[in-house]
Every structure is written in structure tokens, then in C-alpha cells.
Amino acid sequence: MIGDRGLLLTLLILTSPALILGCGGDRPNSNARALGTLVIRANGEDFVRQGFTSKDGWAISFDHVYVSLADLVAAQTTPPFQAETEDRWRATAEVKVAGPTVVDLATGDASAEPVVVAEVEAPAGQFNALAWAMPPAPSGPSQGTVLWLQGTATNQGTTLPFTLRLSEPLAFTCGDFIGDERKGILAPGKVADLEATFHFDHLFGDGGAAPEEEINTGALGFGPLAALAQNGAINLTSADLKSRLSAADHQRWLSLLPSLGHVGEGHCREVQLTR
Fold first, then answer.
1. What is the mean pLDDT of the chain?
2. 153 near 60, Cβ under 8 Å?
3. What is the pLDDT of residues 120-156, one digit of tens each?
């Protein structure tokens, strides 16, 4: 589960390319910028908290969605970072969170708030970029996995408990949060949220959307996984998916994993790390 206030946090405040204030245990000097508290959250959205129906009619509910996170960096960038077209951002301020840590996106009830990953003192301003890596969890219930999906899927009278233990490392670099509310705008002495968002409908599709919509034409669906059930349950690792899915379905699955990471509806630059 997530580290609490004892989680090691390293704060870097960059006021110019040549000056670093507040590095390590140093306290900002009198010229440092005013500070507030930045809360970084992870959100599986209603797809995780409330469940959803895949493009091929499987009603999916989640008991646990463990996500391994590391090397979180939130930044104020000038000009605003465009993740889909730029490789690097130009930061005027950054905060970094040491890790790795593991969160369960399914924690709480259907109306639960996104999970807090870390709270860190940060310079006031607009944090309009966020990056994180997803390495295998070093410990805990999902040790050795990047993503652990556990729940139940039902379709036409068939109910299958499922556990998917995925080990493909990923990394995401994202621009500004896009959603109904602005995030990352931190006033002096105040609190602001940033959010790493995960879109699991990209894997399974969305039964509430038209079949011809991109979310469904690109998704694998749940049926190919259900076909691999044994003794009334699905229990699969990344290695199992590679050996038991068809070559085409496995390639589609791998191509979908890097599309999980977002900032609200804002897109990220998805990077598949060495496996």
C-alpha cells in the first residue's frame, strides 16, 4: 500500500537553470518562492471504483488494482509542455517524490476520492506537467508486478473471478491536467491537487460507447482473457498472456498498455521501458 507521511520526499525548486534551492535537507533561503502543499493522487476513475462493461459485454468489477509508482516529478513549465509533440519540458520549478510506492486504485467505495500518493511542500505557481515511472513493486501484495488487477467479470450467466499480474514496466510524461476542474494551481500557503489518471477502458473497451468509437475499435475487450479461464477462474501473468493469447491479441494488448496513463483526459507521452 502507499507510504504515509514517512514516505521519503525530495524537493527540488529550480528558480533558474543555474540555481537550485531547497535541495535535500536544506531549507529555502529568504529569496525562495512562497510555498504551499502539493498533493499528488492516483485515480482509476469510476471504471475502477464502480465497475464497467467491456466492449464485448463483460461486466467487470474490481476488488484490487495495485499500481506501482516511482520517480514522480511535477513541474511548472514555460512554455506549457505539450506531451504529444515534445520530448522534454523546460521547468521553472520541479518537485520530485522518491519511491517506489504502491497504491490500490480500488480502495474505498464507489464514491471514494482518488488515492493520495504523496503530499509535498512545493513552490506556489501552476504545475502543468507530471511524469512517473511504473517499475515492478519491490514488496507488498503485488510484489514483482507493475499492475495487479483483481476482481470479477460476468457475462450471460457466467461469472469468472480474475487476477491479472502484469510485469511490463512503463513510464509516462504528461502535460497539463484536463478535466471539469483545473488542477495543479498552487497558491502560497494553500493546497492543490495533481493527478495521475489511469484509463482501464483502453484495455477492455466501453460497452456504453458505440462499437465504432475509437475506444472500442482499438481495445482488446475481455473475451480473449475469459477464453483462457481454467477451473472457473482467470489467473494470468504477463508470461501467460504471451504464451496463451494469439499473437495478434498479445500484440494488441502490449500496444494498449502504454495508453493507460493520462492526466484527467490529458494525454501523455507513453514510454515502454526495458522488459
1. 88
2. yes
3. 999 999 999 999 999 999 999 999 999 999 999 999 9
Report in angstroms the alpha-carbon separations of 23 from 20, 97, 155: 7, 13, 54
pLDDT at 275: 37
Residue 259, all three cell numbers: 495508453
Q: What would the grid cell of residue 35 be?
A: 510555498
d(CA 232, CA 193): 42
Residue with cell 513549465: 77
The Cα 11–Cα 119 span in angstroms is 11
CA 86, 89, 92: angle at the middle one, nearest 5?
A: 155
The SS3 assignment for 217 reads helix
- Cα 114-115-121 angle, rounded to 5 deg: 105
Q: Tell me the C-alpha distance between 11 and 40, whole Å.
A: 13
Number of helices (H), then strands (E), in the chain:
6, 19
Tally of residues, the chain: 275
CA end-to-end span of the chain: 24
In this predicted model, what pLDDT tens digit does every residue of 255-275 receive, in sequence order?
A: 999 999 999 999 899 875 443
- Express as a percent the part of the chain with pLDDT over 70: 87
